């Protein structure tokens, strides 16, 4: 992220490599550079998630598929080992999918504010609603890692910059919509499930960030709640 200078306030924006969950890394297999032959502690769960034969024993075929999943989502080491980070990402994906089209079922995001962007840190999901009506989403997001948590509470979008570039990290932050100091919605070019998380911003895919840009405006409410796993 970068410095956002507005009304004399220096807002340190947040771009880091983010992931929708942060779980303890646990023990990693010794042969990180090659495909692991070790059976991981979450072998059966990972096999089931990936549609593999569920026997709880690592095989060369298992390792190839697990490694491909890890590579796609930036999970390191990507050695095909069925460890806690890999299973944590898969478990989060499953819980996100279970939400369906009713992300505010528990009523945690205010329905008396008109149009509002909601961020559920626990499930790493965001959506836009208008009263009780779902306008867009839910979509997976990547929020702040441990030590750089995305701050909770009711906020408002105060500044938008479609071509923002971080002056701290010297990286682009397209479709930035700032709602709390340097914390903003913006797109990133990595997987939404890429551990460990951002430096505080709510990272989105380009498609989702473009949609948020078209649906939201300065002064719109943002409500952030819950707690990201691992923070």
Automatic annotation (TrEMBL):
One of the GO BP terms on file: regulation of cell shape
Pathway linked to the protein: Cell wall biogenesis; peptidoglycan biosynthesis
InterPro entries per record: LD-transpeptidase, LD_TPept_cat_dom, PGBD-like_sf, Transpep_catalytic_dom
Residues in L,D-TPase catalytic domain copies: 114-225
MF-aspect GO terms: peptidoglycan L,D-transpeptidase activity; transferase activity
GO CC terms of this entry: extracellular region
Active site: 186, 201
Transferase found in the keyword field: yes
Protein name: L,D-transpeptidase
Keywords (A to Z) from UniProt: Cell shape, Cell wall biogenesis/degradation, Peptidoglycan synthesis, Signal, Transferase
Top-level taxonomic group: Bacteria
Signal peptide: 1-32
PROSITE patterns xref list: LD_TPASE
């Amino acid at each position: 992220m970068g410095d956002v200078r507005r009304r004399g306030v220096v807002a340190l924006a947040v771009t880091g490599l983010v992931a929708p969950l942060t779980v303890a890394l646990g023990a990693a297999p010794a042969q990180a550079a090659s495909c692991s032959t070790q059976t991981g502690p979450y072998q059966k769960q990972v096999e089931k998630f990936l549609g593999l034969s569920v026997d709880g024993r690592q095989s060369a075929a298992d390792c190839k598929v697990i490694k491909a999943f890890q590579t796609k989502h930036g999970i390191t080491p990507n050695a095909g080992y069925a460890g806690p980070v890999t299973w944590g990402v898969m478990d989060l994906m499953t819980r996100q999918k279970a939400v369906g089209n009713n992300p505010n079922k528990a009523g945690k995001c205010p329905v008396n504010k008109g149009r509002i962007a909601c961020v559920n840190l626990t499930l790493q999901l965001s959506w836009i609603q208008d009263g009780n009506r779902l306008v867009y989403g839910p979509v997976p997001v990547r929020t702040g890692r441990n030590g750089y948590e995305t701050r909770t509470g009711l906020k408002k979008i105060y500044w938008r910059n479609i071509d923002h570039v971080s002056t701290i990290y010297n990286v682009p932050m397209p479709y930035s919509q700032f709602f709390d100091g340097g914390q903003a919605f913006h797109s990133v070019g990595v997987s939404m499930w890429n551990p460990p998380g951002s430096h505080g911003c709510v990272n989105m895919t380009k498609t989702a960030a473009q949609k948020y840009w078209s649906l939201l405006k300065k002064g719109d409410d943002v409500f952030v709640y819950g707690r990201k796993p691992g923070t």
